[in-house]
């Protein structure tokens, strides 16, 4: 299990929020950071990490500049995704799997707060062969990705590997920015992480709808979005006094929250940059020092392609606020992510197989094991 992270309490960071007096519906004035090829924990890295944390706390996001290599990979990934989405719907619908949630999701199939989103999606998860022990042991959501072609597979896998390296370095910088003693405190939580991604295509706006994706927060750790030049993404920065739900609790979904209120920042596409913000697991881990960033997409005159990459904890990781050892608020990431997929796709063949084969029982066993490992490592009472 990941998570021997030797996490030290955060003491220096307090939540901050933007001053909204004069800034309704503004275009975000976003900082772009250049991240080093290796993070070593020197003064420059600490300064960079602190600036990133500050941006998240005031703006809810920051941008990362791509190196030329990463930019080229992103364009090849978009090219492959354009080729895939141009295929007939009947063919696209065949790329599903009853073992994993990877594969095609048609426009209108995904709901946010009960309303259909217009994006069509290809979900990518960790591509595990049938011989993998976790697949053989019936871990929910584990199995091979139903790749539509080798070109798509190669382009996407290459780009995801690059995003994975960026994700690890960002976690190191954020650890430093939060004042954690261990440079790898957050990165070790994402060791062999359950990283996944959504390749998205949005149609142009029509007389029926301008809704791309309804407002929501993402349920994981680090969210890294690549967008083309069509535009449409908005995010909601922290706002003083505004309630932010704990989306990991079934009773507190953040889907649809503040959808029609003001104070959204339009994220103008900037060539060769990535959009980076925290997901729900950051909010839980930092006890709200960092808030999961709500975001939504509206349709424009132009078709839009984007790729949302989620740099995630290990499937077996327990996530608990690290400055509050007694907190009863914790999740087993694997259970959490499985619940989120089941909530999102109750009718998918993958959900049906999980239920039919009682794979949630396997998950309960995995969770029990994780909790006792976590308790042993952190020397706290097993709850
Ligand atoms: O298309 C985008 O920019 C955002 C997509 C998104 O929010 C998601 O897939 O969760
Ligand atoms: Fe999202």
From TrEMBL:
GO terms for molecular function: metal ion binding; oxidoreductase activity. Keywords: Iron, Metal-binding, Oxidoreductase. It comes from the Eukaryota. The keyword Cell cycle does not apply. Residues 193-313 form the Fe2OG dioxygenase domain. Belongs to the iron/ascorbate-dependent oxidoreductase family. This is Fe2OG dioxygenase domain-containing protein. It comes from Adineta ricciae (Rotifer).
């Amino acid at each position: 299990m990941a998570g021997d992270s030797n996490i030290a309490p955060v003491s220096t960071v307090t939540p901050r929020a933007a001053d909204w007096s004069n800034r309704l519906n503004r275009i975000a004035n976003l900082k772009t950071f250049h991240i080093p090829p290796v993070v070593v924990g020197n003064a420059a890295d600490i300064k960079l990490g602190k600036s990133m944390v500050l941006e998240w706390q005031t703006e809810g996001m920051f941008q990362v500049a791509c190196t030329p290599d990463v930019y080229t990979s992103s364009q090849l990934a978009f090219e492959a995704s354009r080729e895939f989405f141009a295929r007939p719907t009947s063919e696209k619908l065949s790329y599903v799997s009853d073992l994993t949630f990877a594969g095609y999701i048609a426009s209108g199939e995904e709901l946010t707060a009960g309303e259909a989103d217009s994006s069509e999606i290809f979900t990518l998860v960790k591509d595990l062969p049938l011989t993998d022990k976790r697949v053989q042991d019936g871990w929910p959501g584990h199995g091979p990705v139903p790749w539509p072609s080798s070109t798509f597979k190669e382009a996407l896998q290459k780009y995801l590997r690059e995003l994975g390296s960026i994700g690890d370095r960002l976690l190191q910088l954020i650890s430093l920015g939060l004042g954690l003693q261990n440079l790898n405190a957050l990165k070790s939580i994402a060791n062999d992480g359950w990283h996944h991604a959504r390749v998205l295509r949005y149609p142009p706006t029509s007389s029926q709808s301008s809704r791309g994706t309804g407002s929501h927060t993402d349920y994981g750790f680090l969210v890294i979005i690549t967008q083309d030049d069509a535009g449409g993404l908005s995010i909601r920065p922290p706002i003083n006094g505004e309630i932010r739900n704990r989306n990991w609790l079934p009773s507190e979904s953040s889907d649809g929250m503040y959808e029609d209120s003001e104070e959204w920042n339009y994220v103008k596409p900037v060539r060769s940059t990535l959009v980076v913000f925290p997901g729900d697991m950051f909010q839980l881990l930092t006890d709200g020092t960092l808030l999961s960033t709500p975001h939504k997409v509206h349709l424009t005159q132009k078709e839009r392609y984007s790729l949302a990459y989620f740099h995630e904890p290990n499937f077996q990781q327990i996530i608990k606020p690290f400055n509050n050892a007694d907190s009863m608020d914790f999740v087993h990431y694997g259970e959490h992510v499985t619940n989120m997929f089941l909530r999102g796709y109750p009718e998918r063949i993958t959900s049906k197989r999980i239920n039919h084969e009682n794979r949630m029982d396997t998950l309960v066993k995995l969770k029990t094991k994780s909790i006792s490992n976590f308790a042993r490592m952190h020397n706290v009472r097993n709850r």
